[in-house]
Fold these 2 entries.
Entry 1:
Amino acid sequence: MLLTGNHAVAYGVMLARPAVVPVYPITPQTPILEKISDLQLAGEFAVDLMTAESEHSAMSACITASLTGVRVFTATASQGLMLMHEMLHFASGARAPIVMVNVNRTVSSPWGFWPDQTDSLSQRDTGWIQYYTESGQESLDTVIQAFKVAEQVLLPVMVVHEAFYISHALEPVTVPAQDVVDAYLPPFDPAVRLDPGLGRSWGNPVNQDLYFRFRQAVGEAMDRVPGLALQADAEYEKMFGRGYEIVERYRMEGAEIAIVAFGSMVGTARVAVDALREAGISAGLVKLKLFRPFPIGEVRAAVAGVPKLVVMERNFSPGAGGILHQELKATVCGMEDPPKVHGYLAGVGGVNVSPAKIEALVRRALEEEPVPQSVWQR
Amino acid sequence: MERFHHAEANYDIEESDVFLSGHHACPGCGEALAVRYVINTMGPRTIAIVPPSCIAIIAGLQPNSSMRVPIVHGTLESSAASAAGVRRALNHQRKHDVNVLVMAGDGGTYDIGFQALSGAAERNEDMVYVCLDNEGYMNTGAQKSGSTPHLASTASTPGGKTTGKKNIAEIMAAHRIPYVATATIGYPDDLARKVAKARDLKGMRFIVVLTPCLDGWGLPENGAVRVSRLAVETGFFPLFEVEDGVRYTINHGPRGMPVQRYLEAQKRFRHLEAEQKERLQAEVDEAWALLRARVECGALPAATGDSGDGFPGR
């Protein structure tokens, strides 16, 4: 089918069979909500669509519906994700395996509607697993994989793709068959749930020691994610013929420099790497699909022996710089003979980062010594 | 000792044993009494949502609980949305016999929780929402809320609140939900009857229960029930029900007792001048005139009747 990234998501959601979808409209997420509504009206998707009065309420309803023992999905973007912030922490603390798609969009103020990853990246401490995708097909496939991982570790998952580049771009998308998805993703039927017959409660105040233990348990669940995500992806590839790993290496053979990227920038960087290789520069690409938990082991293995890494950021943390730049520096710190990391704030606010621009920045990184800060480069 | 009238309830309270002794309420707490009649009337096939509030303290500290039903202690502003999530999941599981109950304070209802409450009412979510109204943020040390009455002294309005109390029952009735009621602990038969009535209806049901706070209002340990009754007898807190947003029933009219009797029983009104007390009397008289007018409006024939989708079609 020819689908936009957001419509591809809606089909992935339908195939995963969530029972309850509380959602609130926001550009550029809305086509997900609209397509789910259309599929519901057409009788193709039996779902309880709750048209909440805010994202905060949508996430609140997601949490309690999930704790009551049904599969739950929602979607949002930008300001909506910001409004949910309190409930994002609550969801992971409550161990609610919600899957949410966030469509990256600039955060106000000033207002903008452009692809910028700061909205989801600024939620990286909320205890949500985060996947970043580079195409509508990958978003569809990742939504299905996300439920599989979430329900094993009882943590919520955010599947993230960018405004317009992915959300509204039309691409040929393979929509899997329902019976194969059903075989891949068993029904969600948790033993512990809200039920008067069980009498379990959630959220009552705890002492310091219990709080410590709950946080540690969240951390231990997070630690299991990279392995389970790889397993979920390998199984998916076996059944559907498409796999993504959690850290992909593209043309990394003998690389003297590697671009590290996530989201839509990956597709652009593939073109740039091909051109650089054509021009005799041994450039490679490391695609980061899983961002939380940060797959330190997989990233270190991918960049070991590479002299230089370069990041073109589509996000910005004032006072710290590019967020991937920071994460990468922390990751390589302590490696034997670690790569030097160059960070360029190139795509902040949705500014276009063309293959030519990426090529130029790679050439520049090869010629200069990196500085600790991320460098503005429009 | 003054004599009080019974509310026109004529109802025998049937209590289940959901609420347990040994909870964390202050001795003599008016709210604990309300929790008892609410949760014991709702019964053991209930899932309750409580936001941060005195109710959450009464419900207990993990791993203990004072209630033999599942409790979700959610966030302060999300109770109605959280309840909707539970209800929709239960519907998917075909557990239609399980009640979903919110017990929230006035801060979590009138103020920060109002958006979620209004949204849930607009969607006619299937739940019983009980606001245990002690007219302020009593759990955090008695600060003013949108429910604090005009001129009452609180920790954040030490000179007296300069604006009035929101009429939450009227606001909820304006959403045209199936059932709205006011109740208070001084009339437990009336309270339990309203909870039972709400429990047996479908859709959004809302009850605001006046629950005097000993510390916040400045009452003796044995004063909660008495002041609850004074609130009704003086007309300060009318007991009434609204069905489908229009059919009003007054359960207990004022009996001519001056508001002064209610005010002088509490430290939070101790600072009032005679002229201010007269103003409050005039406000109570005006509110009663409006309420009586609403009863008469509700007696008018319905415009279109029930639309058949469970939501009143007027």
Entry 2:
Amino acid sequence: MSTTTIEIKTALDTMLKPNPHVGKQSSVEVTDYNNRQTVGKITVDHPKMICRGVNVYYGEKHALKNVGIDIGANEVIAFIGPSGCGKSTFLRCLNRMNDTIPVCRVVGQIKLDNDDIYDKSIDVVQLRARVGMVFQKPNPFPKSIYENVAYGPRIHGMVNTKPELDDLVRASLERAGLIKEVEKRLEEPGTSLSGGQQQRLCIARAIAVDPEVILMDEPCSALDPIATAKIEELIDELREKYTIVIVTHSMQQAARVSQRTAYFHLGDLIEVGETDQIFTNPKHKLTEDYITGRFG
Amino acid sequence: MNKPSDSAAPDFRNRDIKTIVNAGLKRRHAAERRFRWYGLIAISLGLAFVALMFGNIISKGYPAFWQTYVQLPIRFDPTVIDPEGHHDPKAIESADYAALVRAGLRDLFPAVQGRTELRALYDLVSSDAAYELRSRVIANPALIGTSQEVWLLASATVDTLVKGNIDRTLDETERPIKDNQVGWIDKLQASGKIEKQFNTILFTGGDSREPEQAGIRGALMGSFYTLLITFLLSFPMGVATAVYLEEFAPKNRWTDLIEVNINNLAAVPSIVFGLLGLAVFINFFGLPRSAPLVGGLVLSLMTLPVIIIAGRAALTSVPPSIREAALGMGASKLQMVGHHVLPLAMPGMLTGAIIGMARALGESAPLLMIGMVAFIVDVPKGLMDPATVLPVQIYLWADLPERAFVERTSAAIMVLLAFMVLMNGLAIILRKRFERRW
């Protein structure tokens, strides 16, 4: 399929959807996805999120081009690719964090279970409670460890009593593997922890609201190898309960923690596949070049 | 690195890197030393000027905190105070207490005769003495009929002479106090009947034409009411505006226009705000002249842009990662601002607000336009009472020719400066309290 066809298809998509935030897409059958640029199987048997024809524009810049991919339930999927390839942009589409950027425009359809997350009836507050996020730089609130974890349940009104909240905070810290380190210092500021502990605190904060999907944007890029190993272990454990989407610059990390891997290149989703297959037998030339370290 | 390379390398390659760096090292160190000296000189000059200013003001102003009093033998003559003998409060109130003071003075100096001489004698004591006696009698009617030694306020000229601010060697015609008066004062001083007491009138009295009776209470209360209005209006409005513009407003041509206008407003000369206040609040809305309410409104207009600009700067300095963290947790925008951004920006906002308030406290020009420059004797009791403010009071006193007002001007400046220091101290305390230490 030539690039011209892609461009025409993109233009068509844009024309078909005058309002980017209304999911009118569902009524219009999109182009055959087997006949597209992405190499590999984008669908899964038990999808948690289904993304079709996702285009992102930063003003005039076309940052993400017609991306279609399924995210399976209880899987860890890694997005890899060189800087500026659109993997973080795509990740931020999944919980509508891009809404905060005024010039950013998202076109296409992203479904969480059966809800179009860009539909008017979906409130971002509700969406972000279901799709949590962990950021590149550990960003605990300048409050106590306890308050950090309690914040989500509190604003969403998930618990009614203080003992309930205490239990939830402890359970979340426990699941994030942090409880032993902070048990005696819950009232200390979250920022007094080490980088790796801070990041696990952020994970505890995210899972305190019991989301369905957790998005992780290069969660280990600011951490040392030991802290990284702990987070990776944690990701593996969390998979039992949550669906995890992780953006990473480290191919080893993608290979270690994920079941499926998607390779992005200059805004295109080039290849999707089982992680083993992507790293041992990439089908696309660009993927191969990247994972063999020829660029990136 | 040190080895000369075979290829056609530039010249410095052949020289030792150490020598190259060492050659320039001396120059670099000299530049650094010079810069440090410039800084030191600048700071010392600045401090010297501050010291000079404070030294000048304090040396001129501190005598104003003491006031000269004369001790007179007063006979609370019932025939003067209560001639009818009815103990009627009204009669007691309107009695001629000045006559008692005059009698007391005559008792001290029985030798003085003749109209002019006597008038000169009576001028030694302030007209306040009569009011003082009256309030004593009203407070304690049992005084009637008794004789007491009473400390009464001396007149400003006596005060000035006692404080050594009148040159005794000058010819009688060239100074405000006559030779015979100087003689009496010397006699009184010799017998210990003149003394300097702490000047409470300065803090309890309103303005007056008589320097010895003039106080800054009226101006202080005027400043207090004016600043109260200013703070109540400009702080909530400024913070809300800053939050809206920074966090909620769409970035378009209109908000740009508003932003430019706010920045311009901060640079508008303050007198323009006074004219605006005169035109809008007094002429259009018909609010009273000289009222602290109008003064506060005008100063709010002036302070608002300062608070907005400081507030926006404080908001932008909150790291975006905190915003993302809150939004990522599913906080609404208002929750993000209310729970995280605003508390973190509060110290900066308070600093801005207090700097703005301190500027408003020191402002006089716009208040001149709305009539807060009037001579007002009564201490204002509310927002609508005519009032003046401290800087305007200073301006008014600085204009007056009496020597006694010079020290009062400096004293008022000291009080104003004390308030400035207090406000800045408050700013620091609030900042420390709200500041997150992590």
